[in-house]
Specification:
This protein has 582 residues and is an alpha/beta fold. It has 2 domains: 2-312, ABC transporter transmembrane region fold; 329-336 and 348-423 and 497-581, Rossmann fold, CATH 3.40.50. It contains 20 helices and 12 strands. The protein has helices at 2-10, 14-46, 51-99, 103-109, 111-136, 138-153, 159-202, 204-209, 213-265, 271-312, 379-385, 409-415, 430-434, 443-452, 456-461, 479-493, 509-522, 558-564, 566-573, 578-581, and strands at residues 339-346, 356-363, 368-373, 394-399, 402-403, 416-419, 428-429, 469-470, 497-501, 527-531, 543-548, 551-556. A 6-stranded mixed β-sheet has the order 6-9-10-3-11-12, sandwiched between helices. Strand 9, helix 17 and strand 10 (527-531) form a beta-alpha-beta unit. The longest helix is centred in the middle third of the chain and has 53 residues, at 213-265. The two termini are 65 Å apart.
């Protein structure tokens, strides 16, 4: 998977990679040429006392060194651009692909893991590309060139290269093979830390309310210690690598000087040649060391690439149609926003029993359809089928007589204004949140939506009004204010189908009543679907559907259901006396 990702995401940066190779080749040639010049200075200049020769050749060496530095810096610059661009493209690909996931895939991976994959895992691959451009490209050039140049200096000492390089490779290889499983385990444990931290941050009120700070601290300590333990084990192996490399390097230096000294003694080698050979051997071993350093990074990057690839290769269970309907057919036949469910059923993968089965009803424009039922009856699952957050496993959900699976996603979502059970506000301002569904809405439309949602009064009192800041998740406003702002956001969009998933639960009775009257006035002509726990919120609905065990147990108006449905009567009696409900 690592090589597949690299080939795919480095292709747009191939010009930068070509530039890296060219400049790395230039700096490698310069590096390989310097020891030969140094040998000439020693043998022809120092040994003979020729100062002019030393200064002339030394000047050439200085120029070559400056060229080497310039080429190395340029290669690193282009390599960094390619690496950062690859990381950017990977993060964008993950973000875009995850945005197409249904609730099923998001739940399968989990938010903490998806965050880790788009940050830490991408960073590992990005770092590999950077180090590859700066080290891996130069390593084979230096090693091959070093072997050739060393043999030119002295063939009889070249057997040392054949001994030292394999010893270094074997020593480092044994260490690297033990590090691979540790890197894989480390990424999994980073996921666990993210999960615990996210739960504690989002559930901080619950933690404090139940005085469980000590328990949560212990949970985080355990997850943190697991990561630390794995990182220390990997770090110890990595720390062992450099002593092994230095042992081989220093041992090789001693061997070259030892055997070279005998050749100098018998007159078959000059001092400059010995120094040049030693320099080339060091370059070869340094190149091998750079390659082995990359070998350390490849396993961790490979693990990260597998995790990234798992996300990118996961297909959403809610797939866009191959030939999507691009226009609202309801506009042509005079119906706009009519919702129809035909024998709809839904079951989670691997579940023994379906959550919903045999759901059939029609919600028409200008009417309010309410859905009630006990906890676990399938109300929220049913709501998720309407905007196609899930796909029905049987039957069909139709808007304006077109199956939602045949509609283009943008067209489908443009039809719907959804206020979820847990209203979520984005960091920004009141204005930016209200414009989320309709970026070109006027200020008058925003205030009108706020007035209908019974939110105008408190927004006017906020410092800045429409430009008052909203923190992430809307945590700087109360639950009721957050719900009303979420309702106003849907109203600004002016869709043909409104879905309120238990969206009035945080409102007091008086505000609830005013809001429902305003909604009836301002959403006339649109289709309203209301999921509610409170009977008073749906008593005036045109039709009420009673869900029980994933099926429609009864349907009708409030009065009709009081007479005919025992389930509805139980729901009503659990909230208020039957006489009060009439």
């Amino acid at each position: 998977m690592l090589w597949k990702l690299l080939v795919q995401y480095l292709r747009p940066h191939r010009r930068l990679l070509v530039a890296v190779v060219i400049f790395q080749l230039a700096q490698s040639i310069a590096s390989l040429y310097l020891p030969t010049l140094n040998a000439d200075i020693i043998d022809e200049g120092v040994a003979k006392g020729d100062t002019g020769y030393i200064l002339g050749l030394g000047s050439i060496m200085l120029i070559i060194t400056l060229v080497q530095i310039a080429c190395a810096v340029t290669a690193v610059y282009f390599g960094a651009k390619a690496a950062m661009g690859t990381g950017r493209d990977l993060r964008e690909a993950i973000f875009t692909h995850v945005g197409e996931f249904s609730e099923q895939e998001v739940t399968r991976f989990g938010a903490p893991s998806l965050i880790t994959r788009s940050t830490n895992d991408v960073q590992q691959v990005q770092q590999l590309v950077l180090m590859g451009c700066t080290m891996m490209v130069a390593a084979p050039m230096l090693s091959i060139g070093g072997v050739v140049m060393a043999i030119q200096q002295d063939v009889q000492l070249s057997w040392l290269i054949a001994v030292c390089v394999p010893v270094l490779l074997v020593g480092v290889g044994l260490i690297v093979t033990r590090m691979v499983p540790l890197f894989r385990l480390m990424q999994t444990r980073i996921d666990a830390v993210n999960r615990v931290l996210r739960e504690q941050l989002t559930g901080i009120r619950v933690v404090r309310a139940f005085v469980r700070e000590d328990l949560e601290t212990a949970r985080f300590r355990t997850a943190n210690d697991d990561v630390t333990d794995t990182a220390l084990r990997a770090g110890r192996l990595m720390a062992l690598m450099f002593p092994v490399v230095m042992l081989v390097l220093n041992g090789s230096s001693v061997a070259v000087i030892w055997f070279g000294a005998f050749r100098i003694q018998d007159g078959s080698m000059q001092v400059g040649t010995l120094i040049a050979f030693l320099s080339y051997l060091m370059q070869i071993l340094m190149a091998v060391m750079m390659a082995t350093f990359m070998a350390v990074m490849i396993p961790r990057a490979s693990v990260s690439a597998d995790r990234i690839g798992e996300v990118l290769e996961t297909e959403s269970s809610v797939r866009p149609p191959s030939h999507a309907v691009m226009r609202a057919t309801g506009r042509a036949n005079g119906r706009r926003g009519e919702l129809e469910l035909r024998d709809v059923g839904f079951a989670y993968p691997g579940a023994e029993q379906p959550v919903l089965s045999g759901i059939s009803f029609t919600a028409r424009p200008g009417q309010t359809t309410a859905i009630v039922g006990s906890t676990g009856s399938g109300k929220t699952t049913l709501v998720n089928l309407l905007p196609r957050l899930f796909d029905a496993t049987t039957g069909s959900v139709r808007i304006d007589d077109v199956d939602v699976r045949e509609l283009h996603p943008d067209l489908l979502w443009g039809h719907i204004g959804l206020v979820p059970q847990k209203p979520y506000l984005f960091s920004g301002t009141v204005r930016s949140n209200l414009l989320y569904g309709k970026p070109d809405a006027t200020e008058g439309e925003l205030w009108r939506a706020l007035a209908t949602a019974q939110a105008r009064d408190f927004v006017e009192e906020m410092e800045g009004g429409l430009d008052a800041p909203i923190s992430q998740g809307g945590t700087n406003v109360s639950g009721g204010q957050r719900q009303r702002l979420a309702i106003a956001r849907a109203l600004v969009k002016r869709p043909e189908l409104y879905i309120f998933d238990d969206s009035f639960s945080s409102l007091d009775t008086a505000t609830d009543a005013r809001l429902r009257r305003a909604l009836k006035r301002d959403t006339a002509g649109a289709t309203l679907i209301i999921i509610a726990q409170r009977v008073s919120s749906i008593a005036d609905a045109d039709q009420i559907l009673v869900l029980e065990d994933g099926r429609i147990a009864a349907s009708g108006t409030h009065d009709e259901l009081l007479e005919s449905s025992e389930t509805y009567q139980e729901i009503v009696s659990s909230q208020l006396a039957a006489e009060e409900a009439v």
